[in-house]
Amino acid sequence: MSDMKTAIMDAAERRMQAGGFSGFSFREIATDVGIKSSSVHHHFPTKEALAAAVIRRWADRTSDHVDKALAKDPDPVRVWTKAFRGTALSEPHMCPCTVLGASSHDLPKPVAEEVRRFFQMCLDKLVASGLTPNKASEFLSTIIGALVVANSLRDTAEYDRATKGVLKNRAKAVA
Amino acid sequence: MSDMKTAIMDAAERRMQAGGFSGFSFREIATDVGIKSSSVHHHFPTKEALAAAVIRRWADRTSDHVDKALAKDPDPVRVWTKAFRGTALSEPHMCPCTVLGASSHDLPKPVAEEVRRFFQMCLDKLVASGLTPNKASEFLSTIIGALVVANSLRDTAEYDRATKGVLKNRAKAVA
DNA sequence: GTCTATAATTTGATAGAC
DNA sequence: GTCTATCAAATTATAGAC
Predict the structure, then answer these.
(1) Can you point out the beta strands (E) in B45-170?
(2) B80/B64 Cα distance (integer angstroms)
(3) A-to-B residue pairs, Cβ atoms closer than 8 angstroms
(4) Residues with CB under 7 A from strand D
């Protein structure tokens, strides 16, 4: 992948984290990377193609990151809580899949499908790590909701308050 | 409040639930209620004023609904889980505060402030019902995240999977 | 309170030169 | 691969008639 294509996806990702699918324009992305908006179309034919590529890359990176972390720490709850904590504590504080997923029914179908794949991947990996389907759903909802509530309250510490109990119970279960 | 003002807020609320702040336009709202877009401005001067009014009404209604439900059922976890379940199971499946909160940093300040007030109200009421601050944060995050994940997966049953464990543990704690 | 008309801006996208 | 130029459509908002 060319450097410019990567730079475009980086810029789009950051703006999608803050404002979702309608939170970025080709002109803004172009300015961010130092070219013109028509040149962005050379790398990504449409806005939906760019958004879908960004979501897929985020999903792939998350999947890879979790796999590597699980090799060092066998507790999936601790691994996933820490992974999303990184997103919650650093700007722009949100996971793009969460922002887009909240308005999934207003997205172009290919983009909504990539978002769906992301959350299905999260659930599948949690179950593969030993959680029951119900526990996987409950835990994933807690960390996703913690991102949204912390973002809304403008208080990153809210993420830790929301996830403290999950980690504590897990420690007990493991001990 | 005039019937037309209420109808405008109803239309805006529904579109905000699906697409957030940028998910509705004055022309769409106008068509929904059968007037022209310029006439909408007679009732709400700006888009941000309309959005802020819709969020505030949603917060007030939620607060009132929960107060009444708590008078019949003393368990706040059951009451709040059931309240958001109604949103999750019926179209357009989302709480507008959750959709807007996910992209809080891309909102006009007065709108973001109303969203913040909504989530702070939820936490305050949960703590007033007897939950510790940490448990209130964890529980709120779980039901908010359940909305987002269920919406993204296009599977309303996901809300019940995510909240089943919370209700079960609560039943044990009460028993 | 609703209308017509319109301003001013932004949007995603395309054509074609270099 | 980037540019200039441009298009058609949509956006929020305002002015003023009725």
Answers:
(1) none
(2) 12
(3) 172
(4) A 2, 4, 30, 34-39, 42-43; B 24-28, 37-38, 41, 45-48
Ordered by start, the domain boundaries in chain B are 3-174
pTM of the complete model: 0.97
Alpha-carbon separation of residue A6 from A33, A40, A51, A105 (angstroms): 10, 11, 13, 28
DSSP H/E element including B112: helix B109-128
How far is it between the farthest Cα atoms of chain B?
58
Count of CB atoms situated within 10 Å of the CB of A89: 13
Residue with tokens 């961010």: A32
Q: Which nucleotides of C are covered by protein (CB under 7 A)?
A: 1-6, 10-16
The nt closest to A7 (CA vs C1′) is D1
B154 closest CB neighbour out of A19, A116, A153: A116
Residues 6+ apart with CB under 8 A from B7: B32, B33
Distance in angstroms (rounded) separating the CA atoms of residues B1 and B38? 19
A108 touches strand C (CB under 7 A): no
Q: Are B106 and A23 in contact (CB under 8 A)?
A: yes
In this complex, the residue of A20, A94, A116 whose CB is nearest that of residue B20 is A20
Q: Which residue has the tokens 């704690």?
A: B173
Per-residue pLDDT of chain B (175 residues; tens, 9 = 90+): 899 999 999 999 999 999 999 999 999 999 999 999 999 999 999 999 999 999 999 999 999 999 999 999 999 999 999 999 999 999 999 999 999 999 999 999 999 999 999 999 999 999 999 999 999 999 999 999 999 999 999 999 999 999 999 998 776 555 4
Q: Which nucleotide is nearest to B49 (CA to C1')?
A: D12
Class of domain B3-174: mainly alpha
